[in-house]
Design goal:
Largest sheet: 7 strands, mixed
Number of domains: 2
Number of strands: 12
Structural class: alpha/beta
Distance between the termini: 49 Å
Number of helices: 9
CATH class of the largest domain: Alpha Beta
CATH superfamily of the largest domain: Dihydrodipicolinate Reductase, domain 2
Radius of gyration: 20 Å
Low-confidence stretches: none
Strand order of the largest sheet: 7-8-9-6-10-11-12
Length: about 290
Amino acid sequence: MASTKKLRMGMIGGGPGAFIGAVHRTAACLDEEIELVCGVFSSDPEKSYEMGKQLGLAADRVYGTYKEMIEHEQKTKGMDFVAIVTPNHVHYEPAVLALRAGFDVVLDKPMCLSLQEAHELSQLVHDTGRTLCLTHTYTGYPMVKQARQMIARNDLGSIRKVYVEYPQGWLSHAEVNSKQAQWRLDPKRSGPAGCLGDIGVHAFNLAEYITGLQVTHVCADLQTVIAGRQLDDDASVLLRFNNGATGVLMASQICTGEENNLKIRVYGDKGSIEWQHADCNTLAVRWF
């Protein structure tokens, strides 16, 4: 008989004005195998407690800091894993603390702010035997998995060319004053990359995931189109893969009118595939 016990999730981040936290909570409910049992939802304890109340959590399972939550949940064994949905600069430390405390971690991308921190997290996963899940969520679409399988079977033959693009338009103008824009445009909180680190990583991940190849060389042109910004809001990147194939990656947040239409085309010597987020249940396949 299958177990009816649900996985118990804690959450760090995802409070008032946040975006991705609510997405994680919704996704966790889809298969009814995960329940949110505790959390610290804001760096402001009052906001955290209020959010916990709105989510129907017991008062003693809502915390003022993530250190407090991890320490208490480790002692009481009341949590199975933690989802970290904070701004980028609050990814590394809570992930380290959670892994050391014996918890698996679901971590929003990017993993951290430097290659050194990424290596340290990778080593910690190896040492603890815990799982670190980085949420490149577009790989979950059935047609993306179909494309990956077709290429792995050599249906398209030898891969020659890859085009992947992710245009957004929400930062097309300077007068954007949302909570999301504030931290994403701040290098202290977002890290050294703007658009490329925010959405370019999804395009990069999709290119490698679908083709099964690895990018070995890049030549990038990063631009800050809107005057006064400290980080890139537009990027064009030439790619070279480990089989000799070449590609182009475009990521931009100044494409007026665009939302989230991540798109990829892969060309082999036998055929090609095309997939786009705006029509996510369709995979176009063309043959020689």
